[in-house]
Amino acid sequence: RGFGTACNLGIQRALTTDAKWVLILNQDLIIEPEAVALAIEAAESTTRIGLLAFYQMNYTGDAIDPIFRTYLPPSYWDDLLLRHPQQTYNVPFVPAAAILLNADCLREKT
What we know:
Structural class: alpha+beta
Number of helices: 5
Mean pLDDT: 90
Strand order of the largest sheet: 1-3-2
Number of strands: 3
Helix content: 25-40%
Distance between the termini: 22 Å
């Protein structure tokens, strides 16, 4: 019984309500005040998002988290260099330290 169990219980509880989104955050994260609102805005910009991972920086805030960096697609770096990063990217896997889950997608799977 730990973080995973707590997340599962929280997800189950959220799905019994009219929740539109389920937010999962590791307990040791530092999150910017506007991060959740921006994540919901990005997630609602398309109907195809079932899971949105928050952009993750290191604890000093001066670099991308090294684990998170490994999951960024190659196109991200081109977009960043050319100064037109996209709001969202399709990737096959993300670290789950900070994720926003579409509750309707979860309901479909249960």
